[in-house]
Fold this sequence. Notes:
The protein is mainly alpha-helical.
Amino acid sequence: MHRFFNKHITFRIGLVHKIYLFLLVVMLGCISCEWQFMSEDDEAIAIDRYDRIQSLYLTTGDFSALQQMNTVYPMQTRTLIEDVLRIGKVNDTQINTKFLRFYQDTTLQTLIAEAEQQYANVEDLNKELTTAFKYLRDNISGLETPEIYAQIGSLDQSIIVGNNTIGICLDKYLGSDNPLYQKPEYGYTSEQLSMMNRHFIVPDCVGFYLLSLYPMPTDRVLSQLERDIHIGKIQWAVNKAMGKRVFQSKYIQRVQRYMLQNKNATLDMLLRNNNYQDFQ
Length: 280
């Protein structure tokens, strides 16, 4: 009985050991597959939160935050100061003081607080951006995923595109009913207000990025119809990348009709086709 018991215990220990090894192999296999999937398939996009460093400096005057803006984010800082705010050159000796004073305006301080509150979490935007740019990479050969960052402007611009980067001005996406937007001095139309909310951030990123890659022709003067058709092509592509109808217009319908009639046309071919008569 004692010998049988020892053999039984040995058998159970051996079985447990084998099960453990099997589970370990399965787990390692799963981890390997997941790593392979993430490295070879999607390029996950995460918005770089430059706005948080910017906000820290502009609300507290924290010198370390200013240093980080200039050393970690030199391109973003130069773009903000010189192209968005247009308050001087980034290497001006007094630019830091000008920059800080510019944002002491009550309205801009309110914008900073609102933006940081509404966009404390941007995981939903990261997921939408990842999905949209995966579609573009799959359908436009050689397209590179841009670096995307958030900043706080002064209600002038919404999306800044350049040097394979996209800057999101959060101050332009605080909600259509935001009291700041209702002030008559800004003169926003109802159509503009309808697009100044969180839901349009990703479509605008995709749209402005595509427009930078496929700009309107500059070798001739375009009619308003040709301009509308060109934007219709961009917006049709945005709808496809988003997987839903974000934009709707008769020009988008013309593009849809063209694509149905030209089933071999790729997205790149569509966006490069500036013979606008094809869409009339």
